[in-house]
Amino acid sequence: MAGSPETRTPREVGHLVVASVGRVERCDDQPGVRLLDAAGLPVSDVDAFLRTLAACDATPATLYSYASALLRWWRFLTAIGVDWDRVSRFEVRDFVLWLRATPTRPGGSTYAPATINHNLAVLRSFYDERMTAGVGPVVNPVPSATARDGDRPHAHHNPMEPFRTHRRAPLRQRSPQVTSRGLGDRSFNELFAAMSCDRDRALLAFYVSTAARASELLGLTVDRVDVAGQMIGVHRKGTGRLQWLPASTDAFVWWRLYDGRLARPAGERAVWLTRRSPVVALTYPAMRRVLQRANERLGTGWTLHDLRHTAAHRMIKDPAVSLTDVQWVLGHAHLSTTAIYLRPDEDEVIGRVRDHHHRTELPAIIGPSGAYRAEVLETLLGDAGRAR
Fold this sequence. Notes:
Layout: E1 23-26, E2 33-36, H1 44-55, H2 60-80, H3 89-101, H4 113-132, H5 185-193, H6 198-210, H7 214-218, E3 225-226, E4 231-235, E5 242-246, H8 249-260, H9 284-298, H10 304-317, H11 323-330, H12 335-338, H13 346-359, H14 374-381, H15 383-387
Antiparallel strand pairs: 1-2, 3-4, 4-5
Helix pairs in contact: 1-2, 2-4, 6-8, 6-10
């Protein structure tokens, strides 16, 4: 008998060689993306799952993300020689152990806890959908979280009360607390001064005044620039919804300087273009490289997303701007996501506490002669101090 999975020889997943077989590719047919196996053929069960997601209004980015997670799972199953519909929770456990031990690239770090948790969420969703269709294992191999009373977490949540904390589901990784990182005024001014052209200065000014995501601002087109109203229209990440965001006067001044000297190719609608031929739309990797060069000169490590955090922090500090206003500008679906910006910046707290110490400085406990004052010794040592 083969025995139960626990009685078999444990897999040495830390040294498991997982070949990069199969791939995810975009296609014109629904659902717009598909998973191909090692032979280059579509995986029919994954295709059916992605079609269901597309019918539920999942965005193209979500579909691609789910397909990529399933590709990782398929490669792992190929390496251990187990079919997708014959897996148990022990294969899922070994998959997590493999992710924890495997660098994402040669010499790099292992998969982040958030990435592992995302893979588990995708797998659970995939097996739930396939089981509903009458295929796959009888029991979902990916364990789910349960509330203390045995029910699904938040199944009967009262919207007037805060969410209760529940235990993490088995195999889910402990994720570090999300903190926001914004640039102080001095740091931003140094970064702005390190920009080498009006295009890059305009981009930074728009980033810190609109709080748009990096890809949202880079996707801006000329028909969505309202100079008179001081607004730009961006397509929100995830939903694709068009939203008009107010921008600063400085941002439009720098944009005017950039656009006024630009020889825009006929028919080109992208606002941000490359400076070298052939002139094409500026991409995210190219803009990230602009910031990397500035970081190298300054000895810093700022990212494009830090500029979004900077904009959020600036709005939060303004008492005339409410938290719901900031939520709307950032495009957050939940106010709790916006609330992370309420946490004080560590450097700012240290600076304020230092200022507090200077303002409320206590009398020195050392006397002019270099010896402790008598009242200090009495407080510390009582009668013994008085005798001295």
